[in-house]
């Protein structure tokens, strides 16, 4: 039976799991929380409480890691890199979820998978180093590694509607600022397409067709809800957390031709407008 071990079974991996379970796969998901473990079990995923140490790799054919790097590097490699290397011959596919933050700032210009990685934040630099570490492990042990650079993720439970409804949403205005985004359902179908068409060593940008200023997304959400346009706030004077402000340090448009050409993907939600309309229809915008 094909078996996926999902390390740090988070939001994106939880969108993939039902697609594999529907095919009769076994899905194992690691978590650090007993409460989350029970929720995973209810979804048909076999939960494993994992805080480092030995991974449950017996019988595993596919491996996905969603764990972000920390100050000391990639925690999965630190804890179980040697074990993963030893298991390489049994693995048909390995996926590493990275971010488009690896590209750094391009002043609103376009980037693709061949663009040099020039991160401008500590988080972006950590991602580049983690990608390199996974790549080194793959090269040394013939690990069938696939890297996915994800744009800003939205979907059920992760949308702008709640803040627009409660009046806390603001349209942060920074001239020339654009972000690329991706609906979580499209992340899942990209991962599934890669599993079906493995290409070890491949790197894929995972984003929609419509990079856009963040204030446009908030404004469209308000329009869908029939609510007043949230107030515009100049970025320079906006009251933002250091984390939120750091996101505005980078502006770029990300190309997604490769997932379409090499994986045959047709995005379900090619624009944020299509994604937000569907989200409102499916959930009423509730989290």
Cα distance, first to last residue? Answer: 35 Å
CATH superfamily of the domain at 3-155 and 181-209 and 253-269: NAD(P)-binding Rossmann-like Domain
Question: Taking Cα atoms only, what radius of gyration do you get, to the nearest Å?
Answer: 19 Å
CATH topology of the domain at 3-155 and 181-209 and 253-269: Rossmann fold
Describe the strand arrangement of the main beta sheet, using strand numbers.
3-2-1-4-5-7-11
Beta-strand share of residues: 15-25%
Map the helices and strands.
Blueprint: E1 3-7, H1 11-21, E2 26-31, H2 34-42, E3 46-49, E4 62-65, H3 75-87, E5 93-99, E6 110-111, H4 122-141, E7 145-150, E8 152-154, H5 161-166, E9 171-173, E10 181-183, H6 184-196, E11 203-206, H7 214-225, E12 232-234, H8 242-247, E13 253-254, H9 257-263, H10 272-283
Parallel strand pairs: 1-2, 1-4, 2-3, 4-5, 5-7, 6-13, 7-11, 8-10, 9-12
Keywords: NAD
Organism: Thioclava indica
Protein name: Epimerase
Describe the structure.
This is Epimerase. It comes from Thioclava indica. Keywords: NAD. The structure is a single chain. With 287 residues, the protein is an alpha/beta fold. It has a domain of 199 residues: Rossmann fold. It has 10 helices and 13 strands. It has a 7-stranded parallel sheet with strand order 3-2-1-4-5-7-11, with helices on both faces. A two-stranded parallel sheet has the order 6-13. A two-stranded parallel ribbon has the order 8-10. Helix 1 crosses helix 6, helix 3 runs parallel beside helix 4 and helix 7 packs parallel to helix 10. The longest helix is centred in the middle third of the chain and has 20 residues. The protein is globular.
